[in-house]
Amino acid sequence: MTTIKTLINSKAKTKNDSTTISMNRHDMKVNRIATQLKTRNTAAPLSLKKKAVSHQVPKAGQKKEATEKLDISDLNEILEINTNHQYCIAEPGVTFEKIVVETLKYSLVPVVVPELRTITIGGAVSGCSLESMSYKFGGFHDNCLEYEVVTAKGDVLICTPDNAHQLIFQMVHGTFGTLGIITRIKFRLIPAKLFVKVTYEKYTSLEAYKSAIWNHYKERDIDFMDGIIHSPELYVLSAGNFVDVAPYTHSYDYLRIYYLSTAKRREDYLKTEDYFFRYNNGVTNVRPKSLPGRLLFGKIINSTNTLILASKFRRVIPARLFPVTVDTFIPYSRMDEFMDWYIREVNHFPLWCVPYKVVRKYEWLSEDFLSNIDDELFLDIALYGMNKSNPDHYYEIIEKKLMDLYAIKTLISTNFYSKQEFWGIWNKDNYDRVKAQTDPDNIFRNLYDKMCVKR
After folding, report:
1. Rounded Cα distance, 20 and 54, in Å
2. C-alpha distances in angstroms, 325 versus 55, 279, 321, 384, 412?
3. How large is the greatest C-alpha to C-alpha distance in the chain, in angstroms?
4. Which long-range contacts (CB under 8 A, 24 or more apart) does 425-432 make?
């Protein structure tokens, strides 16, 4: 007679066998990539061919990528979901949509899930992803446990926060593939429920809004926290919690627009997957907005398709037509000063607000820059979709103001830093130290050269 114990052991064996097969297949892929790099007889620039769309905002005037490409498009497999120790191991090309679908089968999800379905876990590490659990846990990278990195010379390194390659582990974050190829990522999972209830707290002043954010931050009394600043008179804080049951659910992938709903509703219920990707059609830059337009095109126009088209035609689209897109990280204590300046000089709304806990003194920030920061909480104030005839002006004045406030931004869109300004924020000593080990011939390009527009 087949016992329950026998069935459990059989399922465990099947799962272990599947993991072993996946790991063996992964090792073969990595060996191919490493061999190609080891046998390469040139130091010419090299770019990577991937399957997923890039979520960098196309930069007008961006230099053409290297003509030679290394194909890593097959690195798109989940290798293991460990329910006992609550972690996942996957290849960098796996999208968060796929990760969420598979981990939810075990009532688990990644600690931080970025807002768009087609963001990959590799892109989340190299491009600084965060979301509404970041007020407790920092960014996705802060919840990674191990990276496998292939260097430009074809060496395969296992990097963790506490082994011999710990500096590489910390520095690959936010360096957009310029320090090597991440080929495997191990990251934490957290228990999840079927639904998320969101309560929309509304405030009419920045001071009241900040106070509410701070109280939730200190109390850690909700699972999720982000918000929309609709105007200087309407600040909405979206406070979310996992729940087992829901009296109704909404999704925002067709007729409904999520950020608009936050101004109108008092609360909402979403399936957990739909909550994570509630901004997938755009955060505050959803097109079209009208009901007839969404009825006709709401199912086919989303962030992924928009990025594909913009990337394909960026060399023929005039720079002035690219909307201003920038994520700023403002120290909590400097938010009043930033908003006073922003309303006076920019005055574009709505803005996305994501509180972000600084979990460590990051090695990728310069020591001089860090010495001026005491805040444990930052606010990611994201400006998406601002259309101006002179977008470069706004990128530049925002950069200057951020430097005045000892604030930072991600590098996903247009950047005009001088080299001196750039390396006054990013840690050049640590970057160069890792670069010498992982890419001494600079085939993956220097971070400043890759991400900043030179004049």
Report:
1. 30
2. 12, 15, 12, 5, 8
3. 77
4. 425/365, 425/366, 425/369, 426/364, 426/365, 426/366, 427/363, 427/364, 427/365, 427/366, 427/367, 428/366, 430/167, 430/170, 430/171, 430/363, 430/364, 431/171, 431/175, 431/179, 431/364
CA 336 to mean position of chain CA atoms: 26
> Distance of alpha carbon 61 from its chain centroid, rounded?
24
* Cis amide bond preceding 350, omega within 30: yes
CATH fold, domain 4-191, is 3.30.465
Q: What is the pLDDT of residues 375-434, one digit of tens each?
A: 999 999 999 999 998 999 999 999 999 999 999 999 998 999 999 999 999 999 999 999
Q: Confirm whether pTM is higher than 0.70.
A: yes
Query: What is the spatial distance between Cα 347 and Cα 355, in angstroms, rounded to a whole number?
Result: 21
Separation between Cα atoms, residue 66 and residue 413, nearest integer Å = 19
Q: Are strands 47-49 and 69-71 parallel, antiparallel or unpaired?
A: parallel
Q: Are 390 and 398 in contact (CB under 8 A)?
A: no
Q: Tell me the residue type at 282.
A: G
> What tokens appear for 307 in the block?
């990025």
pLDDT > 60? residue 161: yes
**Helix or strand or coil: residue 197?**
strand
